[in-house]
Amino acid sequence: MTDFLQTKKQLRRTLLNQRRQIPHEIWQQKSQALCDRLSDWQIFQQAQNILTFSSFRQEPDLSPLWQIFPDKNWGFSRCVEKDLIWHQVAIADFDNNMRSGAFGILEPRHDLPLMNLQNIDLILIPAVACDRRGYRLGYGGGFYDRWLPNSTGTKTGIIFDQFYLDTLPHDSWDVTLDVIITEK
Q1: pLDDT of amino acid 24
Q2: Stretch (H or E) spanning 17
Q3: Looking at the whole model, is its pTM more than 0.70?
Q4: What is the distance of C-alpha 75 from the center of its chain?
Q5: C-alpha dihedral over 68, 74, 79, 83, to 10 degrees?
Q6: What is the pLDDT of residue 92?
Q7: Cβ–Cβ contacts within 10 Å for residue 40, how many?
Q8: pLDDT at position 137, please?
Q9: How far, in Å, CA of 92 to CA of 86, rounded?
Q10: Nearest to residue 147, comparing CAs of 166, 120, 128?
Q11: What φ, ψ does residue 102 adopt, rounded to 5°?
Q12: Is the model's pLDDT at 55 over the cut of 70?
């Protein structure tokens, strides 16, 4: 078990280092291509209630997507103790509605309305990497691992294509994602 955890930890470190090496202009181009793919995806087009994330550590930047579709109901999470709490964020007032929160991640203000989690159409999930079986390598905090088993909506991993791997180590509690979307 220790070797397995060490392998995940080493893999996470290696992949995060590779992601940090992506030049800013290339990162922006890949992010825009990923947003274009999402906006053309029928499931996204039909979705009204979407849970998403703000880019952290050079994750794909989905902000162009929110700006093109401000009338969808966008939910962003806050880390509270060991849980994710989802708030609805008005994109038109995004900068005033978000704050730097736990781990330096941009999070919604605590006084914003909560999302109705029984009514979610689509969940856009950040990851360090995903594999072809739908497993996700996260940052190791377990926030999504604890939250995803009871979630509704299409569980969609959002990564750059170079982090879409054949196989990843996984644990019994890992939830497979329904779809993986990359810029390709």
Answers
A1: 95
A2: helix 2-20
A3: yes
A4: 12
A5: -140
A6: 87
A7: 9
A8: 94
A9: 18
A10: 120
A11: -55, 135
A12: yes
